[in-house]
Design goal:
CATH class of the largest domain: Alpha Beta
Number of strands: 17
CATH architecture of the largest domain: 3-Layer(aba) Sandwich
Order of helices and strands: EHEEHEHHEEHEEEEHEHEHEHEHEHEE
CATH superfamily of the largest domain: Vaccinia Virus protein VP39
Shape: globular
CATH topology of the largest domain: Rossmann fold
Structural class: alpha/beta
Number of helices: 11
Strand content: 25-35%
Largest sheet: 7 strands, mixed
Distance between the termini: 57 Å
Strand order of the largest sheet: 13-12-11-14-15-17-16
Radius of gyration: 22 Å
Length: 355
């Protein structure tokens, strides 16, 4: 056994806690979690910093930090680099993709040009390293087009792009070739849901298969969410996911152009608007402002921005767009970098109160 720092949380908060701990590289993967009654003790590699602890407290309402004895894991999962050490030359091993997205039983990787000749062996090794993975996809193109799609190549396993993904207790049917979905926004899905108050009306302007909308409905007894998407395939999966997660009546899927739908049906109804279309969100700020109630509300605005000063650049663009929509940017509640998407390019989120 090993004694180390431990995070104690309710069983219902374990998934959210693990995601935050992985984000900050705090989880000790060599030790086993312990469950006692309705709580779970999670081993940490170190004591969280003040900033990390504050983030944990904001996301997890019931937590305790202490010292505790843990059993070692009996078997460590094979590492990709170990499985490939005798199959790839040293220079190729150095270029192995570090970022792997796991969506249901599908692993998605980006194979750099210098590893193109080794993509099949990389895919097969990923299947061996991750026993729950049945398909390995290589990104064949960037996300593009009105529907935010990319093409993939199957490099190992079953020839498919459709799967079922679980996140924060919700189940999502998705086809990665037909509808946009990113597990890298898992924390944002949970964060936005935690900010919603009972009784709110929410408009999810670019809903995709529903990860924002459905989690909000799942976590609140009295909400109304209008989930809009222009992609017929995304709408089909969204409708299916609403039924699968038992939020019929709380989430209303709508197929069509968000500008037209807002003008015709949803002007002035929303307490909160989610704008997860970072490529073009600035073009729809007027639509979001029009959707808010006359007295105002909250907008969650996402945008891709390059250096320098990505947060300030995104804030300036958003503020200008709000002014052009004849609304008052009353307060920036939060503005931060969500993730890097390319060298010196970031996804930024702005939570803003609009009057």
């Amino acid at each position: 056994m090993s004694r180390t720092t431990a995070l104690k949380v309710p069983k219902t908060s374990v998934q959210k806690a693990l995601e935050l701990l992985r984000k900050h590289a705090l989880l000790d993967r060599e030790l086993r979690l312990q469950q006692k009654n309705e709580y779970v003790h999670i081993p940490l590699v170190r004591m969280p910093s003040t900033e990390e602890l504050e983030e944990l407290k904001n996301a997890l309402t019931d937590l305790t930090i202490s010292e505790r004895e843990f059993f070692e894991r009996l078997e460590q999962p094979a590492r990709l680099v170990d499985l490939l050490s005798d199959k790839l030359p040293p220079h190729a091993l150095a270029s192995l993709p570090q970022a792997i997205d796991f969506i249901g039983d599908i692993a998605v990787v980006e194979i750099p040009p210098e590893l193109e000749a080794y993509k099949q062996v990389i895919g097969e090794s990923l299947l061996k390293a991750h026993k729950t993975v049945r398909t390995v996809l290589s990104k064949w193109s960037p996300v593009s087009g009105v529907y935010r799609l990319r093409t993939f190549e199957v490099i190992a396993g079953e020839a498919k792009t459709q799967t079922m993904h679980r996140e924060h207790g919700c189940l999502y049917h998705v086809d990665l070739a037909k509808a946009y979905f990113s597990p890298r926004l898992s924390y944002e899905h949970a964060r936005i849901s935690s900010l919603v108050d009972e009784g709110e009306t929410v408009i999810d302007m670019f809903a995709g298969v529903g990860p924002f909308s459905i989690l909000i409905a799942k976590n609140h007894a009295d909400v109304r969410v209008y989930a809009i998407d222009v992609n017929p395939e995304a709408y089909r999966f969204l409708t299916k996911n609403v039924v699968a997660n038992r939020v019929v009546g709380k989430v209303s899927p709508i197929l069509g152009d968000v500008r037209m739908i807002t003008d015709e049906r949803l002007a002035g109804v929303a307490d909160r608007v989610i704008m997860n279309l970072p490529e073009k969100a600035v073009e729809y700020v007027d639509v979001a402002c029009n959707a808010l109630k006359p007295e105002g509300g909250i907008i969650h605005y996402y945008q891709f921005v390059s250096e320098p000063e990505p947060i300030q650049t995104a804030t300036n663009r958003f503020a200008e767009a709000v002014g052009q929509a004849k609304r008052n940017l009353y307060k920036i509640m939060q503005a931060r970098i969500v993730r890097g998407i390319a060298p010196f390019t970031y996804q930024v989120v702005i939570d803003a109160e609009i009057k």
